């Protein structure tokens, strides 16, 4: 049987962009710049390249560096503007979307026909009603030569390029999905979208809703969205003249909490176009962004919990979502994390949570056992020391140094445990048995930064202090103490024939 494939058209259908006003004209005069609202990137979101002409050009000096500590509150940062003069180029029409409607700027390039030179467009911004391209002046080219290449009427080709289109495709996927998500939240759960953020790739985007959501609510919205995706609902755009009086009369809805829902048309927009994005049977929403002509392939994944956001008087929540290329990136990285963890644990991916719980439990038990055995060992060492101390019957001072190799994170804790056990054992012994002990501990591998621990304990406080002072001055041990104990740290490589010999010499002079 012969295979057949059904392919979705890689071009935008002709009825995607609908001018619904009999009087609205898309300017055809190439000396005029088409306003934002009617740009090629908005009429045909899959168009990657366009031949057009320059309307005007100017030179912009680099912006003054923002004051230190002043943070720009923006989820997606536009590509950085270099600290050099840029050309601000106004074209008759463009495939490069200027930032707006929550959607970040596109990047791309302009080829000037006369010299076949390719110029990088690092971002595009809406100035009033028009898209201005921020063009980087090519290396070795003077500002005057660059201005000449972009003189009014010059023929150019504006393009997104592969990288620019990939970036745009991701933005369109997330933006179109946001329309579906917001519409379903509003109509099914009466949850208006207070704001949303198209975050930087590949992190999830989010919509902000007035309250947290239960997992069942999230699951039901996700499955309903994916039914619409499966049906491949179509998207189109309707444009007409913007009635400024009507627009001004409209106000952004405000919730009981005082929080406004969404954003009004930017006050500085002078393009004069009213643009409504329609997803068949799902949503009609004024928006200037770029949206895919169909929601095919936009499988929506909602992170199964909302993140509470506390504001002064009200609590809203963020619901994170993924679709299109970002969803694939998320699945790829989640799979690779899980697969590598499964490999470490030598089990199948589905057994990872169980195995991790087991490892954590085993670790807790092992830690408890180490603590118990350390205590037992401390008592055993103390017992040995006590028998040495009491074996001396002539009442003279018993001195002794014990050096240990120990890789524990708390070596002083262990040395202190020996001191406690020693004190407890000696308290039940009759008679006077003067002693002076130095306990020290070093890790098994050493560098110049290695820390070794020293603990001094004795039956006479003044002698403990004298040993501590000698350790400071002769061995460069940093530390201090009170009464019968003195503790310190030695930084560097601890050598048997240097530090240990040094301690023996100190004890011999006490
Ligand atoms: Zn939109």
From TrEMBL:
GO molecular function, one term: Ser-tRNA(Ala) deacylase activity
InterPro entries associated with the record: Alanyl-tRNA_Editing_Enzymes, Thr/Ala-tRNA-synth_IIc_edit, Transl_B-barrel_sf
TM ranges: none
Signal sequence residues: none
SUPFAM superfamilies tied to this protein: ThrRS/AlaRS common domain, Translation proteins
Alphabetically ordered keywords of this record: Coiled coil, Metal-binding, Zinc
Domain of life: Eukaryota
Recorded coiled-coil stretches: 356-383
PANTHER family: ALANYL-TRNA EDITING PROTEIN, ALANYL-TRNA EDITING PROTEIN AARSD1
Record's protein name: Alanyl-tRNA synthetase domain-containing protein
